[in-house]
Amino acid sequence: MADMKTAGAQPEIRVVLVDDHSVVREGVRMILENDKEIHVTGETGDIGEALGLVTSLQPDVVLLDLAFGSETSIDKIPLIIEAAPSARILVLTGVSDQELHKRALLKGAHGLLMKDKAGAVLRTAIKKVHAGEAWVDRSLTATVLRAVAKEDETKRIVADRVRSLTARESEIVDLIAAGHSNQAIADSLFISEKTVRNRLTVIYDKLEVTSRLELAIFASSNRQNG
């Protein structure tokens, strides 16, 4: 089916449904098919198949169920974003767990909607998310968005600290994280051990750590989160 209805019509929002309950997919599809601006271009009940489907179809919006049996789809969110960079992800969930909701947003979801909401709300949420807005159900908004904002602020602060390092200081941090001694670092960088100690004092101050162990942990965590 083409991505345009008729000449001059508004482009369709192409949606892929990912939910392990066929009855839910059927119900959602019926709701969305009543909207001329939305077209369900594909669906799957297997989270493992979702990546292939999203990769091939490159949808505008992925409507993603949060719970799959005893597992969640949270860890698949970054993979979906990588597979279809222009797609927006709207998590549809029946799970009232704000910690999971927060994790989904931090992983890159663009919105969250409870499954018990009316069809009109679902269609509106899809359109808002597709337009570049964030959508979080009112019943979830305050706590979840505060947590996400705090996490984002923490990441910004850490990034600013890392950017304050010179190239040589960054080299020293990497070598510390790799477990090298001051003397080994000095030999590797062709500087004196005293210079390494002096640089470490500056590095501790810039990164706001107080020990070699804290520095190694900071470096390792920043590499994982980068």
Characterise this structure.
The protein is α/β, with parallel strands linked by helices. It has 2 domains: 13-148, Rossmann fold (3-Layer(aba) Sandwich); 164-225, Arc Repressor Mutant, subunit A, CATH 1.10.10.10. Helices cover 54% and strands 15% of the residues. The chain has helices at 22-33, 47-57, 77-83, 98-106, 119-130, 141-163, 167-177, 182-189, 193-207, 212-225, and strands spanning 13-18, 38-44, 61-65, 67-68, 71-72, 88-93, 111-114, 135-136. The chain has a 6-stranded parallel beta sheet, with helices on both faces. A two-stranded antiparallel ribbon has the order 4-5. Helix 1 (22-33) links the parallel strand 1 (13-18) and strand 2. Helix 4 (98-106) runs parallel beside helix 6 (141-163), helix 7 (167-177) crosses helix 10 and helix 8 (182-189) packs across helix 9. The longest helix has 23 residues, at 141-163. Residues 1-8 have low confidence and may be disordered.
